[in-house]
C-alpha cells in the first residue's frame, strides 16, 4: 500500500494541531501516561522496600515461583481486558527484571 504524501491529503484537512477530536484523544493519552508513570513510581517504591527487607532477611533477590504466578495472573487479566497477553507478559517481565536488579543491588550493599 503506498504511503500517503502531504500532497495526497485533502486541502480542507486540518493539521493534527488544529484537530479538536485528535487533541481530545491526545489529552486523554497524556493523562493515562502520567497515571502510568505515577503508578510505576509507587510500585518501585514498594519493591525497593521489599528488596531492602529481602537483603536484611537474607532472602534471594528473585522468586521464580512468584514471578510465574504473577505472569499467569496478569496474562489472564490482560486477556479479560482485551489486551494482548504477549505484550502484557513482555511488559511485566521488563518490570520484574528491573526489580530483581534493584534487589540484587540492595543485597550487595548490605
From TrEMBL:
GO annotation terms (biological process): chorismate metabolic process; salicylic acid biosynthetic process
Q: Name one Pfam family in it.
A: CM_2
What does the record list as coiled-coil region(s)? Answer: none
Q: Where do the Chorismate mutase domain residues begin and end?
A: 16-107
Q: What is its EC number?
A: 5.4.99.5
Q: Which domain of life is it from?
A: Bacteria
UniProt keyword Isomerase, yes or no: yes
Which keywords does this Swiss-Prot/TrEMBL entry list? Isomerase
What is the protein name stated in its UniProt record? chorismate mutase
Q: Name one GO molecular function term.
A: chorismate mutase activity
Amino acid at each position: 500500500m503506498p504511503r500517503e504524501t502531504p500532497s495526497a491529503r485533502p486541502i480542507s484537512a486540518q493539521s493534527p494541531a488544529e484537530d479538536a477530536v485528535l487533541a481530545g484523544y491526545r489529552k486523554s493519552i497524556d493523562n493515562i501516561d502520567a497515571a502510568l508513570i505515577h503508578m510505576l513510581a509507587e510500585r518501585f517504591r514498594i519493591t525497593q522496600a521489599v528488596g531492602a527487607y529481602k537483603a536484611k532477611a537474607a532472602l534471594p533477590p528473585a522468586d521464580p515461583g512468584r514471578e510465574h504466578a504473577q505472569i499467569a495472573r496478569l496474562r489472564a487479566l490482560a486477556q479479560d481486558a482485551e489486551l494482548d497477553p504477549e505484550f502484557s507478559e513482555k511488559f511485566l517481565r521488563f518490570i520484574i527484571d528491573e526489580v530483581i536488579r534493584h534487589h540484587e543491588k540492595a543485597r550487595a550493599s548490605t
